[in-house]
Design brief:
Blueprint lengths: L1 H17 L3 E3 L10 E5 L6 H8 L4 E6 L1 H4 L2 H13 L3 E3 L4 H16 L3 E4 L11 E2 L4 H9 L3 E7 L1 H4 L15 E4 L15 H19 L3 E2 L3 H60 L6
Parallel strand pairs: 1-8, 2-5, 2-7, 3-4, 3-5, 6-9
Antiparallel strand pairs: 7-8
Length: about 280
């Protein structure tokens, strides 16, 4: 109820008036019954523009961090996501992710519309990364059709690292493709090779709609490598600065030592000159 109120009377009117997004292929989204909306993920506004485009409520598999962040702010965020019926998605894989997917499967069994980002995280560079097999597992366990979705322009509106979107930067387009039916493969929902093949088919359909260049690696792995490279580069720069500082320190020390030695030599020479000019001391 909260979701539809916010969508119909707050978010959708504001988004449509300010951003004037384009929606293509909405007829491919079933008016009733279960379906999986599988979308690329470019930026935070994806989770605003795609639900706004669909008249039905979309139950998103949202990352679990939204629900378990400590502190007052974390509790407020968690309460908001629960109020709009979002489903916590544990992205660590294994049994934790399977439990999250079962919640998505339950929503589909109840005839709901479930949204998922198969890449698992936002693209760091605009490319479409390898999909995780959770989307295929949902499709094969429930028999729900998969509607490929392409979000275009959201990464320009709010580039990675930006705190707020700027509607002046881009016009947003949401494209819904023809539903993909994998119900004939339901008996193979436990076969990893089948899940991988179905996931790749879904990602290929998304790529065709979005026109993105594809990358055959997981986005999370690529982000991890980028972070490691950045850390390694920072450490190398820190070592270079430390080495340069030590070298400058040695140079200063050598220069001071040379100056001290030169000054000492001059003082020593002057002392001898004064002694020579005075001559030997008189005797009684």
């Amino acid at each position: 109820m909260v979701y539809m109120f916010l969508r119909n009377y707050v978010v959708a009117p504001a988004v449509n008036m300010v951003c004037r997004p384009t929606v293509i292929g909405l007829e491919h989204v079933p008016a009733h019954g279960p379906a999986i909306l599988a979308s690329n993920h470019l930026s935070v506004p994806d989770s605003i523009f795609m639900p706004v485009a669909v008249p039905r409520q979309v139950y998103f598999l949202a990352k679990s961090e939204y629900f378990n962040t400590p502190g007052i702010r974390g509790r407020i965020v968690a309460a908001f996501f629960k109020a709009i019926n979002q489903i916590p998605m544990d992205r660590r894989g294994g049994s934790a992710s399977a439990k999250s997917l079962s919640a998505g499967g339950q929503a589909l069994a109840e005839g709901k519309l479930v949204g998922i980002y198969p890449e698992g995280t936002r693209s760091p560079d605009g490319r479409l990364y390898r999909g995780k097999i959770g989307v295929a597992r949902l499709a094969l366990e429930t028999g729900a059709p998969v509607v490929p979705v392409a979000m275009i322009g959201t990464d320009t509106m709010q580039p990675l690292g930006s705190r707020f979107p700027d509607p002046r930067r881009a016009r947003i387009t949401t494209i819904f493709g023809a539903p993909m039916d994998f119900s004939h493969l339901m008996s193979q929902h436990g076969d990893h090779a089948t899940l991988r093949r179905v996931t790749d088919e879904i990602m290929a359909a998304i790529a065709e709609l979005s026109g993105q260049q594809t990358a055959d690696v997981y986005a999370a792995d690529h982000k991890r490598r980028l972070a490691e490279e950045k850390t390694s580069s920072f450490k190398a720069q820190a070592r270079e600065v430390a080495q340069a500082t030590r070298e400058r320190g040695r140079s200063v020390t050598d220069a001071v030592s040379q100056q001290a030695g030169s000054l000492g030599a001059r003082l020593h020479g002057r002392s001898h000159e004064e002694t020579d000019e005075g001559g030997p001391a008189p005797t009684a």
